[in-house]
Write a structure and sequence with these properties.
The chain has 419 residues and is an alpha+beta fold. The chain is built from 16 helices and 11 strands. The strands form 2 sheets. The protein has a 6-stranded mixed β-sheet with strand order 1-2-6-3-5-4, sandwiched between helices.
Length: 419
């Protein structure tokens, strides 16, 4: 990657990753603001704001935004996470000015029309309802909340229905004005893009963004514990986890390699032992979530009511076995999977754009695939054991949703893990 970076006078960073062999450009605005920056009384406002950005500006109606971008065969979208928010588009190379004009317009000139706000409130409440009706989705929010209780890092990105119903226009507008600032933003682009042209466009469209605005970041404090919800379902959905590794930690890639070997594919330990040999689940995988000042390492499994009694002891057994490290075959296979995944992602301008923006937000430096490959290759058994020692020394977190009759008590689970 031949990344080029320019910073405007107001602090906005513009990063481009030219790929001359394609005809398209993926571009977007990434903002270092997310759910963890919300006061508890307006949880969900960051996501609400993201929705409202597309509901009309002083120059364009909501319909006009959709029609203009689709008239050139492009698309525009957005997402909110716990630590950032993104507004992005993909267009043919000649349509970059239009895409950036739309992104700049929705971020600076949104109208927040009261009627549109009420319609979008109903849409978001339906989105929350859909998530609640999807047990293998909502279980991760419940796990997050139990791992980080009574704090911003544990609150749901979508917000809670009772809060969303009461959010008013002033709260949404104020959140934008108080949190979105140029120094917290990255404009990233990947594809057939000219860097200087992109800088000139950004200087014209985005120089008026204020340089700095306040943003309170509540520290992440892992607690752990047990959360169970009885629900009439065919399957019991379980997430068992531990504190993980921060994004800037030297052992972050070791944690990612460990998760890949443990539960990252059909050849992983969890898949082979729990599904293939014992037949206790249909779906099972492990994951790592890294944050600026925290992280999580976890296992998801969906099982039948009767199988739950055998599943949890088996998961504990597999978790404890990691204290012995990985075999050389497992370690090499996991590193090969990670390297291949990284290098394959470079064939997508959307992935390259995302990686470039996030790396700048988190690390303040360009995305460097060869350096990441070196860090993956450098992971050894000692690094794996350090990671396991760190998460095994803390209390576990268990979230369970579904028929609970055969699920053993949390105290017994803790005893198994302490053995």
């Amino acid at each position: 990657m031949t990344t080029k970076i320019t910073t405007l006078a107001n602090g906005l960073r513009i990063a481009s990753d030219p790929v001359d062999t394609v005809e398209t450009v993926s571009l977007g605005m990434w903002i270092d603001i997310g759910t963890r920056h919300e006061p508890p009384k307006i949880n969900g406002v960051a996501h609400f704001l993201e929705h409202m950005a597309f509901k009309g500006t002083q120059r364009r109606s909501a319909r006009a935004i959709a029609e203009e971008i689709e008239a050139v065969g492009g698309h525009v979208n957005a997402y909110t996470s716990r630590e950032s928010t993104a507004y992005y588009a993909k267009v043919l190379k000649d349509d970059v000015p239009l895409a950036l004009d739309i992104l700049a317009d929705i971020l600076q000139n949104s109208a927040f029309d009261p009627e549109e706000l009420e319609r979008e409130r109903a849409v978001i409440l339906q989105e929350i309802g859909q998530a609640n009706d999807t047990p293998d989705d909502i279980i991760f929010d419940q796990f997050q909340e139990r791992a980080y209780p009574d704090q911003a890092m544990g609150r749901p990105v979508l917000g809670r229905p009772e809060i969303i119903r009461e959010l008013d226009r002033d709260a949404v507008v104020s959140y934008l004005r108080e949190h979105y600032s140029a120094r917290r933003m990255v404009l990233a682009a990947s594809g057939n893009v000219d860097h200087q042209r992109l800088v000139d466009l950004a200087a014209k469209l985005l120089s008026d963004f204020p340089a700095e605005r306040s943003a309170v970041t509540e520290p992440a404090r892992y607690t752990g514990g047990d959360r169970r919800e009885e629900r009439d379902l065919e399957q019991l959905h379980i997430v068992l986890g531990f504190p993980g590794i921060t994004l800037g930690d030297p052992d972050y890639y070791a944690a990612a390699v460990l998760s890949t070997a443990f539960g990252g594919g059909m050849s992983s330990r969890l898949f082979q032992e729990i599904r293939e040999k014992r037949g206790l689940v249909y779906a099972i995988h492990s994951f790592v979530h890294g944050y600026r000042d925290g992280g999580l390492f976890g296992i998801y499994a969906g099982t039948g009511e009767q199988e739950a009694a055998e599943l949890v002891p088996a998961l504990c057994e597999e978790a404890i076995s990691l204290e012995d490290g990985l075999t050389e075959i497992e370690l090499n296979r996991a590193k090969a999977q990670m390297k291949a995944g990284l290098l394959m992602s470079l064939e997508s301008t959307s992935a390259r754009c995302e990686q470039l923006a996030q790396h700048l937000l988190i690390h303040g430096a360009p995305f460097d695939p060869p350096e990441i490959v070196r860090r993956i290759e450098a992971v050894d058994d000692a690094a794996i054991r350090r990671v396991v020692d760190r998460w095994r020394s803390a209390p576990p977190t268990l979230a369970a949703l579904g028929p609970l009759s055969r699920l053993e008590e949390f105290a017994r689970l803790r005893e198994r893990l302490a053995a």
